[in-house]
């Protein structure tokens, strides 16, 4: 049964029924206040709007008047602090997916790189791609899952290419003996590791300013790689007990031990339960945090 605009989409997931309204855009006492280092910063202070169907309506004002913030709230990209707004009869906060199904937006400036394809522009232009995807008629957390899924597939394909490569790229007379001792475990670790890496990348990307990518590599990714038991088993750190214990906070350790168990079981490695529980639990936790930080980043 399809619900009314006041209650949102139907239980079956189909779009809500089109409300019979003559007002295209309405806002009542709409406010937006941002949190700043020196206290609250009001961007919109109680705007009222009543735009009828078929009207052309423009917002005029000096820089800082709140025009962009108002458009952001009406397009569901900015969450209002107080007040209410409806577009085509749907609440921009409670029924954002229905609003996005019925609107379109063209940005003020052209941020595209003419030397890149449309897909490359979406992938490489971070802020533009986030805004464009947030306008899709989907809940914002699902957009985060979509980004994690796409990155995980790319990482998984990249990782699978490495195994055939080592058969041909090696020192003379030192061809490796590639043998997968446990296929189910190997596939589980590979898929989980790809998802973990993708979720971790999204989490770091939403927590750290993209302009500080060098800091990200130097302070976070490099230590994680060097101390992730990639080049040596975790048991090799027995003589440096404090480092061995500290490395347990590194999710790459469990991924490395899992692959070591599946590919080279004769080499010392953690028991299966010891790396699978943190690997699966850590992946779920990081995915949850990444989805939350992504949603917060989009909506603020």
Question: What's the arrangement of secondary structure elements?
Answer:
Elements: E1 23-36, E2 39-52, H1 67-74, E3 82-87, E4 90-91, H2 96-100, H3 118-124, H4 126-134, H5 140-165, H6 183-207, H7 213-226, H8 241-246, H9 251-263, H10 272-299
Antiparallel strand pairs: 1-2, 1-3, 3-4
Helix pairs in contact: 3-4, 5-6, 5-10, 6-9, 6-10, 9-10
Description:
The chain has 300 residues and is α+β, with helices and mostly antiparallel strands. The chain folds into two domains: 23-105, P-loop containing nucleotide triphosphate hydrolases (Rossmann fold, 3-Layer(aba) Sandwich); 142-299, no CATH class. The chain is 47% helix and 12% strand. The chain is built from ten helices and four strands, in the order ββαββααααααααα. The chain has helices at residues 67-74, 96-100, 118-124, 126-134, 140-165, 183-207, 213-226, 241-246, 251-263, 272-299, and strands at residues 23-36, 39-52, 82-87, 90-91. Strands 2-1-3-4 form a four-stranded antiparallel β-sheet. A hairpin with a 2-residue loop joins strand 3 and strand 4 (90-91). The longest helix is centred in the C-terminal third of the chain and has 28 residues, at 272-299. Mean pLDDT is 81; it is low at 1-12.
């Amino acid at each position: 049964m399809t619900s009314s605009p006041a209650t949102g989409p139907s239980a079956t997931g189909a779009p809500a029924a089109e409300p019979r309204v003559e007002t295209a855009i309405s806002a009542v006492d709409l406010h937006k206040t941002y949190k700043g280092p020196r206290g609250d910063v009001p961007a919109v202070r109680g705007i009222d709007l009543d735009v009828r169907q078929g009207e052309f309506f423009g917002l005029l004002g000096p820089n800082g008047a709140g025009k962009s913030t108002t458009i952001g709230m009406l397009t569901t990209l900015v969450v209002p602090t107080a007040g209410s707004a409806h577009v085509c009869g749907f609440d921009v906060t409670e029924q954002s997916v229905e609003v996005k199904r019925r609107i379109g937006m063209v940005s003020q400036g052209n941020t595209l790189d003419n030397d890149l394809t449309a897909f490359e522009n979406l992938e490489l232009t971070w802020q533009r791609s986030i805004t464009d995807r947030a306008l899709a008629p989907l809940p914002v957390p699902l957009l985060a899952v979509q980004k994690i899924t796409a990155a995980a597939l790319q990482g998984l394909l990249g990782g699978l290419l490495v195994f055939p490569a080592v058969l041909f790229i090696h020192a003379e007379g030192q061809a490796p003996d590639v043998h997968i001792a446990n296929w189910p475990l190997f596939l589980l670790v590979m898929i989980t590791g790809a998802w973990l890496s993708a979720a971790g990348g999204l989490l770091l990307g939403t927590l750290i300013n993209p302009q500080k990518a060098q800091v990200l590599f130097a302070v976070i990714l490099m230590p994680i790689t060097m101390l992730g038991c990639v080049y040596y088993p975790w048991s090799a750190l027995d003589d440096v007990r404090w480092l061995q214990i500290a490395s347990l906070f590194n999710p790459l350790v469990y991924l490395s031990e899992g692959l070591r168990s599946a590919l080279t079981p004769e080499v010392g490695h953690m028991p299966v339960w010891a790396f699978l529980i943190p690997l699966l639990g850590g992946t779920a936790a990081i995915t949850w945090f990444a989805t939350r930080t992504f949603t917060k980043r989009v909506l603020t």
